[in-house]
Amino acid sequence: MSTTRTILGIDPGTNILGYGVIRCSGRNTAKLVILGVIELGKYADHYTKLKVIYDRVQHLVDEYKPDEVAIEAPFYGKNVQSMLKLGRAQGVAMAAVLSRSIPIYEYAPRKIKMAITGVGSASKEQVAAMLKSILGEKDFDQKYLDATDGLAAAVCHFFQGEQPGTDGKATSWEEFIRKNPGRIKG
Asked: Is 82 left (phi over 0), alpha (psi -120 to 50) or beta?
């Protein structure tokens, strides 16, 4: 019996919010549905940006009907005002998802990079390149790397095995590959 599920990944931001949607079949196959960005830089007022985030994320949820949402957690920075604004953006995106009763899974940026590339300090370009390989895409139609960051959150969640009756955890790369045939494309 094959389980199909849709995962929306979100990389929250106050100037650009990245997102990606994947459709998963069972434990081994994930296909790209869409990735893109919500551009917020044109709105001068922070509260208007928050409303746009809420409305657009809710629209994404209504259009793609994800079973689960994976969202990148804010990283710790030195600028407190920037962190507060980023936290608000993430909270509003989460509220939009929760308004449709969809479960949310939060992942630290380092964990997402580790899941995609095997290196927690990988660059955005390295994450994008690995996502192409993992999903079997020739190229992404993208304007910003924030879109692939949102997609990376979705793929990270897929790799975690958040499916009923599975733990998805492996104690080594060899065990991961053995448990997940076909997930890594060479």
From this structure: alpha
Q: What is the CA radius of gyration of the chain?
A: 16
Closest CA to 8 of 56, 45, 49: 56
For 118-148, what is each residue's pLDDT tens digit? 999 999 999 999 999 999 988 776 667 899 9
The CATH homologous superfamily for domain 4-179 is Ribonuclease H-like superfamily/Ribonuclease H (3.30.420.10)
3-state secondary structure at position 103: coil
Q: pTM of the prediction?
A: 0.83
Please state the domain extents for the chain.
Answer: 4-179
Tokens of 10: 């979100």
| Predicted pLDDT at 49 | 97
What is the token pair recorded at 69? Answer: 């949402």
Q: What is the pLDDT of residue 27?
A: 78
Below-50 pLDDT ranges, the chain: 1, 162-170, 186
β-strands 29-39, 16-25 pairing: antiparallel
Residue 73 gets which letter from DSSP? P
User: Which DSSP helix (H) or strand (E) runs through 63?
Assistant: helix 46-64
Just list the catalytic residues: 11, 72, 146
Helices 109-117, 145-160: inter-axial angle, 10-degree rounding = 80
pLDDT in tens, 20-39: 999 999 878 999 999 999 99
**Total residue length of the chain:** 186
